[in-house]
Amino acid sequence: VRDCIQKTLTEWSSKIGQDQNQETLEVLECTVAQAIEKINPEERDELKVSAKLFIVGSNSSSIRDAVDLACSALGVAQLDSVIIAPPPVEDGTNLSLEYLQPYWKELENLVQNKKIVAIGTSDLDKMLLEQLYLWAQVKPSSNQVNLASCCVMPPDLTAFAKECDIQLLTHNDPKELLCEASFQEVLQESIQNVKANKWIPLWLLRYSVIVKSRGIIKSKGYIIQAKRNAS
């Protein structure tokens, strides 16, 4: 992730030139156009577009921004599936249904507005997955389990998932895919005269475009959004 961000920022920075005063702009859109392959509408039915969303700053409204930007970048009207990684909780606080609810409501709204087809979760144990399933209007279609946390799927989780038709998937993502300090460091290295310590990452979305009939990844990439503190 860090290498992708650094390469994009470095190439973008060299193209816009250093005469542009970035500090005066409200929004910086750092995109290398040739690196993103838009989906041909004629091929859309043959492809599955899936994404995993990592919320860095705990703000549920970021979900809509992330999905809208992903759809725009790929040239599609909707994403086939979105899995959300549990947003960060404060030290000493356990992840709870109450904490997840505003994020899940945002995902449900996007399903109802036909921006997403299916929504899923990551790293929920059987108790929390069951609580979410019973409460949610739009049920989770999948739950990712970290390979580092278990060699064998927990039997109670497996039984519940089978009963409720929830697909159990595995992943090996680190608990924190991109921390604030790492993002600021790569920003400082990539763009001259930027006050990196003012920038805070909000979310990171990893997408993949898969050819359904062959199970081949056609393209994949990352989209990240950060904000600059005024202070």
From TrEMBL:
The answer, when asked if ATP-binding is one of the entry's keywords, is no
The pathway entry for this protein reads as:
Sulfur metabolism; glutathione biosynthesis; glutathione from L-cysteine and L-glutamate: step 1/2
What do the Gene Ontology cellular component annotations say? Answer: glutamate-cysteine ligase complex
What's an example of a GO molecular-function annotation for this chain?
A: glutamate-cysteine ligase catalytic subunit binding
Tell me which family the UniProt entry assigns to this protein: Belongs to the aldo/keto reductase family. Glutamate--cysteine ligase light chain subfamily.
Q: Assembly and partners? A: Heterodimer of a catalytic heavy chain and a regulatory light chain.
**Name of the protein:** Glutamate--cysteine ligase regulatory subunit
Q: Tell me which species this is from.
A: Hylia prasina (green hylia)
